[in-house]
Amino acid sequence: MPRISNREQILEAGRDFIHRQGYSASGIAEITAAAGVPKGSFYSHFESKEAFASAALDSYCAQGEAAFVLLEGAGPADERVRAHFKAVDKLVCGQSYAAGCMLGNFAIEAGPLSENLRKHVSALLARWTTRLAACLEEGQKEGSVGTALPAETLARFLVGAWHGAVQRAKVERNGRATSAFHRTLETLLRP
Fold first, then answer.
1. pTM
2. Could you give all domains of the chain from N- to C-terminal order, each with its CATH number?
3. How far apart are CA 101 and CA 88, in angstroms?
4. How far is residue 108's CA from residue 105's CA, in Å, rounded to a whole number?
5. Among the four residues 27, 67, 166, 179, which has the most C-beta atoms within 10 Å?
6. pLDDT tens, 143-190?
7. Tens digit of pLDDT for each residue in 25-46?
8. Can you tell me the distance from the alpha carbon of 101 to that of 166, in angstroms, rounded to the nearest whole number?
9. 141: Cβ–Cβ under 8 A, 6 or more apart, which residues?
10. Is the separation of the CB atoms in 10 and 29 below 8 Å?
11. ∠ CA(108), CA(111), CA(115), 5° rounding?
């Protein structure tokens, strides 16, 4: 089996560390210690902590790509939206939601600290919204999703409501808030 590169080792371990501990609490020394590599290795692969954080966000989103593919699959759009949010829930429910969603965490914590990270998170949220809106629009055309709201408005609301539910689940350390999201989703999708 090929050996994982230092870059990938730093990215995987550091991504998970920064996800659990937060951007501000994660220094280069902590990230490299989590990866088990010398501190100098970090700068061979990332020009700064900010550059690492951007790569970590991309890596985090890539981990969840299967949940997004569900939006583009076959079957009624309302079922695909439900399956998507259930899959996203599976990604964040570990350790009683203690780490939350890395994208949401960065939106709250790193956005005010770094204009580049704020823009990066904004672009990732926009991509999610666009993919979700496309599925919702399909559902509105086929009649499986209600038309009371434009698809993009509903998508923006759902992404925001999801992040709110995950932040609350993170604080409460249980899935009650995300369960409430799923129940409310049923009403919001209803034609």
1. 0.92
2. 6-49 (1.10.10.60), 64-189 (1.10.357.10)
3. 9
4. 5
5. 166
6. 999 999 999 999 999 999 999 999 999 999 999 999 999 999 999 999
7. 999 999 999 999 998 889 999 9
8. 7
9. none
10. no
11. 175
- 166: tokens are 């995950």
Give 77's contacts (C-beta < 8 A, 6+ positions apart). 135, 136, 138, 139, 140, 142, 144, 145
Contact indicator for 34, 16 with CB cutoff of 8 Å: yes
The helix, strand and coil proportions of the chain, stated in percent and rounded to the nearest 5, come to: 75, 0, 25
- Close Cβ partners of 85 (under 8 Å, ≥ 6 residues apart): 158, 162, 181, 182, 185
CA 34 to chain centre: 21
Using the 8-state DSSP alphabet, how is residue 3 labeled?
Answer: P
Amino acid, single-letter form, for residue 191 = P
Closest CA relative to residue 102, chosen from 43, 22, 7: 22
Find all residues with CB under 8 Å of 182, minimum gap 6, and list them.
82, 85, 86, 89
**Model pLDDT for residues 79-124, shown as the tens digit of each residue:** 999 999 999 999 999 888 999 999 999 999 977 889 999 999 999 9
* Identity of the amino acid at 183: R
For residue 57, give Cα distances in angstroms to 11, 54, 74, 120, 126.
10, 5, 28, 8, 14
